[in-house]
Write a structure and sequence with these properties.
Length: 214
């Protein structure tokens, strides 16, 4: 039993290590797609084959479906797709694809000012919102921000408005973003409209697709 557990942990670690951050469909040759994964040179991949942790599931005209780390993502020709790991890829992407979890929430790893956080997409939040605990952990001196009053489910609460230097999801990065730091505990950083307004958004089944506008 112990050996099986160790093997499973190694398999999970290997999958995480090989999961891609950015995938671009640049063309096709017959039934083979031409993919760029994490900025590597283009590679022709047949349906069912895997390259750098990305498996080509299907290919049709200028669209493809790929799978990485157990999740599937839709690609369109020449549109880089960040698959939401918030890893080490470059910051030149313009498209984010998020998968809904079992509760219908869109969660993703990302970065604020280069420090790792866990985001939950929230179209009802005016700005990015994070707890004071998270702000301290990533080195934000929110005490220099503007003191504001926030309406919460538990009544009014004090918060601090400030500007974030950068916010990143996968290989998509935006700059100079409004945020609110709350004194109340929060399990996730809310990815609100100060970030989302930089994108056009559409939902396709269980995917939320964000296309960068500026």
């Amino acid at each position: 039993m112990k050996a099986l557990l160790v093997a499973a942990l190694w398999a999970a670690a290997a999958m995480a290590a090989h999961a891609a951050d950015s995938v671009t469909l640049t063309g096709s040759i017959g039934s083979r797609a031409i993919l760029i994964v994490n900025g590597a040179p283009p590679k022709t991949v047949a349906v069912g084959e895997t390259f750098q942790g990305v498996k080509l599931v299907s290919l049709q005209a200028d669209q493809a479906v790929v799978e990485s780390a157990g999740k599937r993502f839709s690609l369109r020709m020449d549109s880089p797709v960040s698959i939401g790991r918030g890893g080490i890829a470059g910051s030149g992407g313009n498209r984010i694809v998020l998968q809904a979890d079992s509760r219908g929430h869109y969660m993703t790893q990302g970065q604020i000012n280069g420090r790792a956080v866990t985001f939950m997409l929230d179209t009802g939040a005016t700005t990015i919102a994070l707890s004071a605990v998270d702000a301290q952990r990533i080195g934000l001196d929110y005490s220099k921000g503007q003191l504001v009053q926030m309406r919460t489910a538990n009544g009014n609460a004090a918060g601090y408005r400030l500007r974030l230097q950068s916010v990143r999801v996968g290989d998509v990065e935006v700059y100079d973003i409004d945020a609110i730091v709350s004194q109340q505990p929060m399990p996730f950083v809310l990815l609100g409209n100060s970030f989302l307004n930089r994108f056009s958004m559409r939902r396709d089944a269980d995917e939320m697709i964000l296309e960068k506008r500026y």
